[in-house]
Amino acid sequence: MSQVRVHNLSLSLDGFGTGEGQSLEEPFGHAGHRLMSWAFPTRTFREMGLPGQGPGTTGIDDVLASRWDRGIGVEIMGRHKFGPQRGPWPDDGWRGWWGEDPPFHTPVIVLTHHPRPPLVMKGGTRFEFLDASPEEALARARELAGDLDVRIGGGVQAVREFLAADLVDSMHLAVVPIVLGRGERLWDGLEGLEQRLAVESVASGSGLTHLLFSRPGTGG
Amino acid sequence: MSQVRVHNLSLSLDGFGTGEGQSLEEPFGHAGHRLMSWAFPTRTFREMGLPGQGPGTTGIDDVLASRWDRGIGVEIMGRHKFGPQRGPWPDDGWRGWWGEDPPFHTPVIVLTHHPRPPLVMKGGTRFEFLDASPEEALARARELAGDLDVRIGGGVQAVREFLAADLVDSMHLAVVPIVLGRGERLWDGLEGLEQRLAVESVASGSGLTHLLFSRPGTGG
To answer: HEC string of chain A?
Structure first.
């Protein structure tokens, strides 16, 4: 059975996965780049096309980051990860944050209450827009993924909904040593999560902590 | 200059330092013993009188726990740490959770809007009840502590108030891998704390993460 996985989801110490006030200019709102800045220097993110000098780091941050696309057949993302729009889609030519060749290279299901025709991108990425519950979206994702795993790619709200529905088998969180104060909190409504997913903790330089959740018995 | 320190404050992953519904039977509310259970097996806590077999562990959890009383001249605690009562003190003979010989062995300032005469205990502990702001309480604590350090002993609300007033020089948090869902949250109102206190992270077995905050320049 293929697994449902979350990777590289960054949280502040106070549990926010994005700041307040997402916009085209600030995809993470008032958090700016602070939540993801641990990942930018890694080789994995450099190879996704993020700017930077040199080949990128290959330490524990990179080792963990690099797992994100291994064995993945499809991503499910929330609408807020796809773009800053709200409500009915405007006729603005938006095709995601990632340009014409997004780093996914698989089908991507975008959850939205406003379905629209798929967008076929370069390199194998195909955005499909679905108005569906987590269970329904996962059923469609498994059709697309075959034997491969399904990644819940974020944002925070999408991950929280899949966790609440107990559909996640493994999750990698990067806890960044900042107190963000406001934004979208991952943990709300997830009391007792540790009874379903075991937790390991790995400290990395500068106060960053990686948390690895896995469902007992899955070997996740 | 003496420092103001916080030690062994346990938080859930979602940032709660105590659960909902504190009572005589459940000092941590619905959290039960889960927040402090990492500390019970340590030699430090065994020597405070907690029940258990054998001499106690001496690994990293104990090393960190053991710093709590080194060089401390006084503790400041919130009323909720002292006891479950609310409002005017009832005539119930309450002298704290810790019996006649509490583990503090120093003066202890209990913050309360309902002052009362001091309680002199065995072993050097003396509870003094003060209706004061954090700044006022710290001034009194420094009178009592001389050259020694001041510990903010908890609970969560007291620590949060001293952090908000930027009076804390070093803080040790133990983040326990549970999602508590409700209770008293440490982080509320502390946006940007990392700009005042640097953070180190140390992972310990079973998903526990120790966070060490210190004011740059204090060597804390």
So the answer is: CCCEEEEEEEEECCCEEECCCCCCCCCCHHHCCCCCCCCCCEHHHHHCCCCCCCCCECCHHHHHHHHHHCCEEEEEEEHHHHCCCCCCCCCCCCCCCCCCCCCCCCEEEEECCCCCCCEECHHHCEEEEECCCHHHHHHHHHHHHCCCEEEEEECHHHHHHHHHCCCCCEEEEEEECCCCCCCEECCCCCCCHHHCCEEEEEECHHHCEEEEEECCCCCC
